[in-house]
Amino acid sequence: MLKGEVKERYLKQIKNIGPIASPLLNSPASPELQRQNHPHIYALNANSLAKPHAKEQLYADLKAYNIGIAIITESRLGPHHKDSAMALQGYRLYRRDRVGRSGGGVAIFVADTFSTSVCEVLNDNREYELLWLQVEAAERSHGGTLLVGGLYHPPNPCYEVSGLYDHTENSLERLLESNPGASVVLAGDFNQLDLAEVSARVGLLPLVSQPTRGIKVLDTIMTSDNA
């Protein structure tokens, strides 16, 4: 286990809402990942992917649980961290590094068995650490579109929180206009964000009800009701 990081991991199979961990804990690491149409999701505050052994520990977890998509917050990557140095075999890396300040950041690893693209967001604001991806099954007839969002909201943001609520709501609304019927997953470290407010704004259901740090629910996964 990596030290100095959030230890909670949330594992979810998109087509089976049940207990978050239960669909995966008994699943062997196997070529099953290559046959997934709806990926298993993993969310973690890594407190830096660049620290010693962080990448290796992450890769071990992803392989052990047949993870299709890993949403990592506080990636703490910067321009000097090349994608090639952060690469994990069998996965593509998508990043939204913090601009102008150290720390923070979002990284999403997606198994290369899925067709994935970064979603362009109208009126994007780089101060918001929110990354949206569009993920398709390798064979489109076997699965629909999945919109995946990774969000990190720091304890001391440099922006108005109301602006982040608006941006998250508006960006997802426009993405759904372009992808009607898509399933949605939004996960990350929300810190002091009001989960009820986020849920009401984006129309997603929070899956984490137990405290993740102390008595607070700071890290979560939300999904659409068709996920």
Structure description:
By secondary structure, this protein is α+β, with helices and mostly antiparallel strands. The protein has one domain (10-223): Deoxyribonuclease I, Chain A (4-Layer Sandwich), CATH 3.60.10.10. It has six helices and eleven strands. The protein has a six-stranded mixed β-sheet, with no helix packed on it. A five-stranded mixed β-sheet has the order 1-2-3-5-4. Strand 8, helix 5 and strand 9 (183-189) form a beta-alpha-beta unit. Helix 5 (161-178) runs parallel beside helix 6 (195-202). It is globular and about 40 Å long. The two termini are 30 Å apart. Mean pLDDT is 82; it is low at 1-31.
Provide the fold topology.
Layout: E1 10-13, H1 22-25, H2 32-35, E2 40-45, H3 54-64, E3 69-73, H4 83-86, E4 91-96, E5 106-111, E6 115-118, E7 129-136, E8 146-152, H5 161-178, E9 183-189, H6 195-202, E10 205-206, E11 219-223
Parallel strand pairs: 2-3, 8-9
Antiparallel strand pairs: 1-2, 3-5, 4-5, 6-7, 7-8, 9-11, 10-11
Helix pairs in contact: 5-6
Number of helices: 6
Helix and strand sequence:
EHHEHEHEEEEEHEHEE
Main beta sheet? 6 strands, mixed
Average pLDDT: 82
Q: Helicity, in percent?
A: 10-25%
CATH topology: Deoxyribonuclease I, Chain A
Radius of gyration: 16 Å
The share of residues in extended strands comes to 25-35%
